[in-house]
Amino acid sequence: MKREVPLLLTAAIGLFMILSFFVPHHAVSVPADFLQQSAVIVVAFGIVLGGANLLRVNLEAVVKRQGDWPYKVVLIVSLVATVLVGLIEGRDFQAAGTRSTWIYDQVYSPMSSAMFALLAFFIASAAFRAFRIRTPEAGLLALAAFIVMLGRVPLGHVLTAGLPPALRIENLAEWIMDVPQNAAKRAILIGAALGVMATGLRVILGIERSYFSGED
Amino acid sequence: MRLPAFLENLDRRWIFLATGLLVLLPLLWPLNLPLEPSPPVRGYHDAIAALPPGSRVLMSCDYDPAMRPELEPMTRTTLRQLFEKRCKVVVVALYQGGALLVDQIVNDVARQRRQRYGVDYINLGYKAGNEAVLVLMGQSIPGTFPRDQNGADVRSFPIMRDVRNYASFALIVSISGGYPGTREYVQQVQGRFHIPLVAGVTAVTAPTLYPYLQTGQLLGMLGGMAGAAEYEDLRLERGQASHGMDAQSLAHVFIALCILMGNVVQWERRRREAS
After folding, report:
1. ipTM rounded to 2 decimals
2. What is the pTM of this model?
3. Can you name the residues that pair with B197 across neighbouring β-strands?
4. What span, in angstroms and rounded, lies between the C-alpha atoms of B115 and B209?
5. CA geometry: angle at A95 spanning A93 and A98, to 5°?
6. What residues of chain B lie within 8 A of the CB of A125, using their CB?
7. Are the Cβ atoms of B214 and A146 closer than 8 angstroms?
């Protein structure tokens, strides 16, 4: 029963949701809406569950003095403080001038931006140390990268402004994006879509069971 | 010391310093390099320009502060163009970490353009659920977002009086930095409800959306800061993105040079080993 009931539920709901896509009648659409609303609620609870799990895992690591445990203390204190401040401020916690907004504006927002900004430095360093042209394919990749990188910025346009339009770097970059890049991307998209459909069918038919017990 | 030998022993902190300077200096002393709007950017601009005045537009701003430099300028310019056309803008957010940021940006632009909250624009805030939220909005938007960002009943605002679902909108603008974002709007909304859709995305995401541009599922697209700057140029504005493009120009050229220099080092090393 422990195995059969979830399988049956998954198959029934999966087939019903496929049916709802093709049948707009209210006898189908109303229960389908209910199921989708339930999904939104489940996701919302998932956020709470995720927070609780984060707390549990990190508390455990701190108690056991695992590597980097001081950072985990910072995480726990930040998490608890942010949630507490939000709870104390109640429903208007996102209003201008609240402590929650201050935490968001002065701590979360700049730290999040700074982490992303660091990428520029690491990309430059990696470009120098790791982007090695060892094969003709890597050479083609590097050439395409050059053209697209320079074609996307005004300086590249200025450098090739004197050339005929077909040879200007912005037009070459646009051609690379429109033709070879698009062809490859479309193939990947179609392949991925077929894979998603196959996986969906496997889940509905009960062949793919890893989602509820970790087994294949 | 010859150049390849110097490069071989180059401390990466010099690369960090050069990157920092190349980004910082053009921000302090702009080069004002000319911009050339690309076809996807023209498509984005023209789709909004073609809207009848007073149209209702759904704007989904799905990003967080990490993506702010790329996506905030295009959000601001889009809002300015929409408000100029007297469009009624309904804003939603699918990124948990970005709802407050988006609220600040939207309110700031609205204040500058003297737009009234609940009449000319509204922010419905964040809703968890990713694709499920998008599908639910196809049934009922007030049902999916019963309260706005500030917790008020959305049905009490004049702008929401006739809003039922996607069919109530002339255009959807998706400004997104990843998942959930533009791709999900194409798959779950445009493909199903056939509402005109334009997108503003990060430079990393842009290549993945080109197939949708070619099929016409996206009427236009702004890719990263470059797209936002070209859009500003089309609007004859010189905003945050245009100022940032000089720095990005030099950074791109420097990264291209880094690739070249790294390979010169390798070729030289191979040549030495072979001889």
Report:
1. 0.83
2. 0.89
3. B172
4. 32
5. 65
6. 12, 15-16, 258
7. no
Among residues B188, B148, B190, B160, the alpha carbon closest in space to that of B173 is found at B190
Say if CB B91 and CB B124 are below 8 A apart.
yes
Identify from A26, A109, A197 which residue to disrupt to test chain B contact, counting B C-beta atoms within 10 A and taking the largest count.
A109
AA identity, residue B203? A
Averaged pLDDT for residues A21-44: 87
The secondary structure element, H or E, covering residue B61 is strand B56-62
Is any Cβ of chain A less than 8 angstroms from the Cβ of B149? Answer: yes
Q: A151-173 as b/e, with b when 16 or more CB fall inside 10 Å?
A: bbbbbbbeebeeeeeeebbbbbb
A115, B250 contact by CB (below 8 A): no
Please state the three-class secondary structure of A77-141 as a single string.
HHHHHHHHHHHHHHHHCCCCCCHHHHHHHHHHHHHHHHHHHHHHHHHHHHHHHCCCCCCHHHHHH
Q: What are the pLDDT digits (tens) for A87-134? A: 999 888 888 889 999 999 999 999 998 998 898 899 999 988 888 888
The distance of A27 to chain B (nearest Cα, Å) reads 14
What are the structure tokens assigned to A47, written together? Answer: 């956020």
- The DSSP bridge pattern shows strands B88-93 and B197-201 to be unpaired
pLDDT tens for B193-206 read 999 999 999 999 99
* Two structure tokens written together for A210: 């890893």
CA distance B55 to A93: 32
Query: Which pairing describes strands B88-93 and B121-126: parallel, antiparallel, or unpaired?
Result: parallel
Mutual orientation of helices B12-28 and A109-129 as an angle, nearest 10°? 130
**Residue A208, token pair as written in the block:** 């793919």
For residue A207, what are its two tokens?
């062949």
Q: Which residue has the tokens 């255009």?
A: B171
Give the Cα separation of A186 and A65 in Å (integer).
Answer: 49
Q: Which of B57, B58, B86, B60 is nearest to B71 (CA)?
A: B60
Contact B214 A182 (CB under 8 A): yes
DSSP result, B144-198: H--B-TTS-BGGGSGGGTT--SGGG-SEEEEEESSSSSHHHIIIIIIHHH---EE
Which 58-77 residues of chain A touch chain B by CB within 8 A? none
For residue A107, give the nearest of B69, B95, B96, B65 by alpha carbon. Answer: B65
Amino acid at B237: E
- The residue type of B107 is N
B76 touches B242 (CB < 8 A): no
Q: Do residues A137 and B236 make contact, with C-beta atoms less than 8 angstroms apart?
A: no
